[in-house]
Every structure is written in C-alpha cells, then in structure tokens.
Specification:
Length: 382
C-alpha cells in the first residue's frame, strides 16, 4: 500500500509499506477513504514532539471501509463505512469507565498522561496513522462508529478530531448564558470552538489570530467578532477595552505549541525546542480572562515544561480546564447538531490533496499558503 512516511523534521514522502495485518482478535483493518492533516500533525512535522521515529505514518483523522476484522470483533463487518476517533482506548479501564477515553491506561506504555493516538509518535503509543491506504484499528468494537447514511464523508472525517475537539473546548469553558468568550487561534479547532460557544449560550464570541483569511472564515463560519493581534501593541489590553476593562468570562486556547505572537517565546520553543511549546496563547488567555473566569486549553503541547503564568492564574482565581478530547463521548450531541444544520464541519475544508502529493500538502499547510485552513487527503485506493 501507499503511505505517508516521516523521514525527519520537514521531510516526509510517500512510500510502499505492507498492508497492516490483524495482530489481535479485537483488531480491524480499515481501507481509508478520506483522511486529513491536523494542525497538531505539524508539531510532528516540525520536530516538536520527542520520540517521533523515522518510518512512522502520521494521521489521526480518517474514515474508511472495513477491510478485515479479527475473530473477536462483533460490532463491525467487512464493508461497513466507519469513522474512527483519534483516541485509541480499551473501553474498560479506570479512565474509560469514567468517559476519559483520551486517558486510557491500557493502550500506551507511556500512559502516565495521555492514552494513545493514531500516528502521533511513540509518546502516544507508537501506532501508525491513517494517512495511508490502510490502517490497523485496535479495539475495533469500542472506538469506530458506523457513519450515518445522511452524513457526508467530509463532515464525518472532521468529527474524528477537529470539530469534536473544538466542541469539547467550548464545553470545558463551562459557558454560562450571555458569557463573553475569546478564542485564541482561528484554525479548524478554534473555528469549531467559536461556533460551539454559541450553542452553549455565549452572548459574545471573539476570535484572535494574525492571518486575515482565517479571521474572515471566523466571521463567516463562526459568526464571531475578530481581532488581528498583529495590529495591536498589546492584544490583552485591547481585549480588556472590548470587555469593559474586566476581561472575557471564558478564554479558549486553540493555538497550542507553535503559537505566534511572542518572539522570544516562539524562538525558544518552536526553533530551539527548549520548551514543550510556545506559551504565548495560553498566557494571553490567562491575562485576558476576568478574575474568577475559566481558561480552556485545547492547543496541543509537548511533554516538556512551558513558561505558563501559573502565579497570575492563581492570583486571579481562574479555573483551568484541559485534556485531549474524548472524541466518542461528544459524538451523540455532535451528530444531532450536524443533522440539524447547526454545525457543518465541511465548511472549513479548503483543499483536497491526493495521497501521493501529501508532502506538498504539508508544506502548504505549514507555510499557510493558498488560504489553507483544512486540507483533506484522498488515498488513491479509495
């Protein structure tokens, strides 16, 4: 089969790999029909996360058709059209029993923190991902779900991470009716968080970014107010002016480890790899939210330390809430929202790229070329 293969920072290519095989009776093999490049894949591409090994296939957002099932699989059959959450989880451990599927304790030898994620380095279990023609799906009776007949493929693939994560970010904000919500980052997760904030009762949503084409999408897709932080000496001071000098009720960090906006922090984290990620966005969130407010952190960060303003968070009495999204827990409500037309994830798709051209897709997404917001990957076998 053809698969995207990592060869080092900024170096990926398409190679021939063996079609994955059933390794456990609970496995399924999925023929991938549609995948996506996620903003967090760029952290791997840029060499931000440790133990990203040469030969790994990335990709934690994918859907497909069941090609083969293990002898113990009961809920799937060959030919089923399925969507697969980015979390790999057993469904029975202490954490899964509490709905914390992203913290499953049985799928990752390094599971003191995160559980397992498809195609996301050996710190997340070392599983190959779905930017390929076929992928092995462990615990196939637990993770995947049948795609409803009414749901379009492009909506389904974005529910496997980006849209679900944005929705979860708004959920963690514990938004009360009429709250002012500020979202840092107008990528797919930020757009989804902004749109979801309205569904949870927000009275005002403000999105912060520095790319005008992404801010335009925030206005048209998420119906948000927008601010380009590059146009202000201090975006926090500007946000205070917009909120009666109190600050927002809820701030959502949807930017993560490579946030622009602070030169020294960006260089020390993104370039020199001295931190687990640039703390610019999360520190802006802490500074711009009101006393007693809530900060929701959805941006992906590495396991190293980051210079986060915990003292300010303590002194302001903030609630900080964060986690990798337990995707399948969000699906029942998200399915209803998509079916009713309140959310249309495919609105953020800007590019559809053949798998054989995925290196160009990564470069375009990384360099923010051609108005790229969300690129989908189409395997030739589909």
């Amino acid at each position: 089969m053809q698969a995207m293969v990592y060869r080092g920072p900024y170096r990926i290519r398409v190679e021939e790999k063996d079609i994955p095989r059933i390794e456990h009776p609970n496995d399924a093999i999925i023929r991938v029909t549609l995948a996506a490049i996620c903003g967090s894949d760029l952290h791997l591409y840029h060499g931000m996360l440790p133990d990203t090994r040469v030969g790994t296939t990335f990709g934690h957002e994918f859907i497909g058709v069941v090609h083969e099932v293990g002898s113990s699989v009961q809920n799937l059959k060959v030919g089923d059209r399925v969507m697969v959450p980015f979390n790999i989880f057993c469904g029975t451990c202490f954490y899964c029993a509490r709905g914390l599927y992203s913290n499953c304790h049985n799928v990752n030898p390094n599971a003191t923190a995160v559980g397992a994620i498809y195609g996301y380095s050996h710190t997340a279990g070392g599983y190959d991902g779905g930017q390929a023609e076929y992928v092995r799906v462990p615990f196939a009776d637990v993770g995947p779900a049948l795609i409803p007949d009414w749901m379009a493929d492009e909506d389904a693939v974005l529910l496997t991470d980006a849209t679900a994560t944005g929705y979860f970010g708004a959920q963690l904000g514990d938004i009360a009716e009429g709250d002012t919500v500020v979202v840092f980052g107008a990528g797919p997760v930020g757009l989804s968080a902004a749109l979801s904030s309205w569904l949870m009762g927000a009275g005002r949503v403000i999105v912060i970014d520095h790319l005008d084409y992404r801010l335009e999408k925030a206005r048209t897709m998420a119906h948000a107010e927008t601010c380009n932080f590059g146009e202000y000496d201090d975006i926090v001071v500007h946000l205070k002016r917009l909120t009666d000098h109190l600050g927002a009720d809820v701030a959502i960090d949807a930017a993560g480890a490579e946030a622009d906006g602070g030169f020294l922090q960006h260089i020390s984290s993104s370039k020199l790899k001295l931190q687990g990620g640039s703390p610019v966005a999360v520190n802006w969130a802490i500074d711009s939210v009101r006393k007693g407010g809530t900060v929701s952190i959805m941006g992906a960060y590495g396991p190293l330390f980051s210079q986060v303003k915990l003292g300010d968070a303590v002194n302001k009495g903030l609630t900080l809430r964060m986690n990798q999204c337990p995707v399948k827990r969000q699906w029942p409500r998200l399915f209803e929202h998509v079916k009713n037309g309140y959310i249309r994830p495919s609105d953020m798709v800007t590019h559809r790229i053949p798998l054989e051209h995925i290196a160009e897709g990564y470069h375009m997404f990384s360099a923010k070329l051609d108005g790229c917001i969300k690129p989908l990957i189409v395997p030739s076998a589909s």
